[in-house]
Design brief:
Number of strands: 16
Strand content: 25-35%
Shape: globular
CATH topology of the largest domain: D-amino Acid Aminotransferase, Chain A, domain 1
Largest sheet: 8 strands, antiparallel
CATH architecture of the largest domain: 2-Layer Sandwich
Number of helices: 12
Strand order of the largest sheet: 13-12-9-10-11-14-16-15
Helix content: 25-40%
Radius of gyration: 21 Å
CATH class of the largest domain: Alpha Beta
CATH superfamily of the largest domain: ATP-grasp fold, B domain
Amino acid sequence: MKDKGKLLIFGAGMLQVSLIKTANELGYYTIAIDPDPNAVGKNVADEFEVVSGSDYETTFTIANKNKVKGIVTTATDKPLLMMAKVAEKLCLPFPSETAIYNTINKFELKKILVSNKIPCAKGVLTNLTKLNEKLNHSDITFPVIIKPIDSSGSRGVYYCESKEELIAVYSKCTEYSKYDKVLIEEYLDGPEISIEVLVQDNNLHIIQITDKTVTPFPYTVEMGHLQPSRFHPAYGAEIYQVLNAAVKALNLNNCALHPEMKITKNGLKIVEIGPRLGGDFITSHLTPLSTGINMEEQLIKIAVGEKINIVKKANRYSSVLFFDLSKNNTNATQIVNKIKTLKDYVSEHELYFSDLNNLPVITNSLERHGHAIFSADTLEELVSIKEQLLN
């Protein structure tokens, strides 16, 4: 029985389906909005509306007319500014527009981190005309990372070892941005982690820390995630200290966070902060498997003003592996047959392309060929499962 009221869910794509299901199971009437009329979650929600990502008036009308108790999303930055505007108008728990803008705009984020002496990569904002001038007046040396200031999912991000390479990929980078300027950052050498976080009443709660696997340069596409991170015991206290300072500097409150950090020879450094739940099945699947905590459920509690409950109920290992069938030395049939033999460990899998003879080269997260999600009691078991899926 849907007696808890109505929730407005921004997005009904593959990565939002789990959130819609969680809200349904909690007894909320779910209203999902998405610009795609064929969004895979349209029939999972109680109600579905096709709404442009920039249509504030229609979005507000839907929220106001239905007297929604909260607004939520996951795994996407695109609706966050609109959500902040709607939440402020309806007095719903959510970060302010300013806080969201300063976090999702990668250059504004960097300026605030630097001004508050919070460790992050050095960076300059430039267009192509002033590229030489900006680099010459900075202490950034090659190699560098070039990225749009308003994109996500590794789209438009390139590793460059020279100025010639930088100029060559500039136009490709701006294809993923509404701005003609790009962010050029020093390359941070070291493993990258993400941190799965909830913030309520100005209190920061780290739920899990995640290791990631990325493609070789020049692209940095995430091809796998593993929980808990092997760096958790050694860096847990420092991670909390750095993130807590960042959250206070950005005035982020009553939200989920998905920060990404690098562990360098000079210590921890923040790469980016997503002011929402992490994508790639990290918070929807991996975190419940490894901790027993359903972060989607807790985010919904934050959205409707209820106190969260983050008691850890499990201590296991979980992972998602994304397939590159052109490099894995395998094919779809072999993967499916192997998954059948590992059915006690693999909880979900999917291959994304029907034409397996014409697969895209993977340059961003939308071009990956499929995934498998699996879990085990020990790290050794988990690594063995991954090796079997890859080989």
